[in-house]
Write the structure tokens for this entry.
Amino acid sequence: MPSKKVIYLGGVPIGGGNPITVQSMLRSSLSDLSSCLQEAWRLLEGGCEIIRVALYDEEQLSNLSSLKRSLKVPLVADVHFVPELAIKALLSGADGVRINPGNMRKVEVIKELARVAREEGKVIRVGVNLGSIPRERRAAYEDDASAMVDLALETIRLLEDEGFENIKVSLKASDVMTTVKAYRLASRVMEYPLHLGITEAGPVWEGAIKSAVGLGILLADGIGDTIRVSLTGDGLKEVEAAYVILRSLGLRKVGVEIVSCPRCGRCEIDLERIVREVEEKVKPIRKYMKVAVMGCVVNGPGEARDADLGIAGGKGKGVIFRKGEILETVSESKLVDRLLKLIKEVEGDEDE
Amino acid sequence: MPSKKVIYLGGVPIGGGNPITVQSMLRSSLSDLSSCLQEAWRLLEGGCEIIRVALYDEEQLSNLSSLKRSLKVPLVADVHFVPELAIKALLSGADGVRINPGNMRKVEVIKELARVAREEGKVIRVGVNLGSIPRERRAAYEDDASAMVDLALETIRLLEDEGFENIKVSLKASDVMTTVKAYRLASRVMEYPLHLGITEAGPVWEGAIKSAVGLGILLADGIGDTIRVSLTGDGLKEVEAAYVILRSLGLRKVGVEIVSCPRCGRCEIDLERIVREVEEKVKPIRKYMKVAVMGCVVNGPGEARDADLGIAGGKGKGVIFRKGEILETVSESKLVDRLLKLIKEVEGDEDE
């Protein structure tokens, strides 16, 4: 089940069954404001709902303020080692901070951070990362999942002692099953919203698959309130992957879902080219719809029947469907244009 | 848990806790033998362990025989509509056939198929595809998952009546949760090995993510004995995705797993380029190892400590680790070459 508590990050509710939000993190250095802004706007266009940025230098605080003023989504500062910097981030306008309890030792400053966050109505993410837990501490536990959850609980208690409960928690490892185990345990022992992610998941392709496995398992169990797919590559891919994961599970219905067959010897149209073309053209569409692009008569009409719009290939031509009704047969050269025109109609259709 | 029964497809055990095998399907038409051979060899090099090909014309049977003679992995013929053709496929050398009960009506011919398969020691996959189930039949069930499982059971009974039990079962829908529900139900009511897949999952990127969600959920539950990721695009991507899914769950340890961080403002080396270069170069390696490519000191050394080999970036240079031991500090320009050399050493190391 979703977290019992709901928190508000810059006005956006997280947890308690609210829609699962999609996050990403800027690759740009906060020292380069214009680069941060360009990157952030691109992520926002792609549907990113919460933006995080690494803050590691006091001189970046004024850029943090400027960035916050330019964004209409919550901004989170990612702080390691120096809790004092997390306090300054909140006072400079960040809606929340992510702290890494694995590399923050100053208990009194963390308590001060909690008091500031409480007064300012801000959020603290207790962001545990397995790789940052000191070796000796990690070795003291039966398994890595328990080591992560226990470290989170210890930090949560510090924050709660200051009357602060606007907390979310993450427990990231690069190993999928360790991560799954940690979040499952956390979902039983704490009531705060959980921010899901597989850390250092890898390059775009393999990292997205790995994240989909881990996040898919947890989300299907009802665990997770906000997600970030971590990929080495374009941050926009993180947002795309996150929405495909959520859409696969019926948790967020955003964008055009393309149902398309893998093409086999039966296929008599250039299916791959058609799918690539459709995929590229529908990317900017945020409205949910299901579009089928099928190569042959075997599964084609059957699956296309379930889609809002669909085409099934024949010999150099195709049949177009709309909600199970055959609309027309058109030549292969006109198939994509005709389909895209119909997709645009569905997009503009208010009563859908 | 895995299936209770074990079957043998061309000598390869499927089910009963045997390693989960990776399949793909040829895009080429069986009418074009040389194209099929080229495609198949490429898939085999990528680690594909079972190859399927669409058979839809009697004239393709001689090519089916030739293809089988040229491959050292099991070959499955994919047959729709015409069970007679499935019988001929088995007699022409295919190790198994996939039949689609949604579009095969001739009960007597299916029984004959079972007798032939039994005599020849071959496998029949009862391959249900939601899109192929007649509309009226589908409407008669409470949900699509039950409709799929019931159709599979009906066909299984036909085969069992002829004393045939060398069966595997698939229940594919393009909707992830419908597919998950169907396989979960099947794992409770039948003992045959399950071939997992999300049908018509879509283009390579989104289809791989969708498949990873669905297959990940099932495999984490212990359901599934052989898998095929269906993507519209290069079949090799299906094999790659399948191994990443299995590796994520610790079910098959094959190839180089790259742990790499998403790069943030703290990163001072060109991490993306390095990761892309390493990713490309290690693709042919089948031996399992974990290689970390980290951008900064925050998580870098910690995570790289867990990897067989790892690098963590500094300013224009990097530190190289091996199993937690710092080996050396090298300049950014030499980092990849040095890492690859060490990877090659681990690859050649027999006692690993």
Q: What stands out?
A: Chain B has a mean pLDDT of 92.
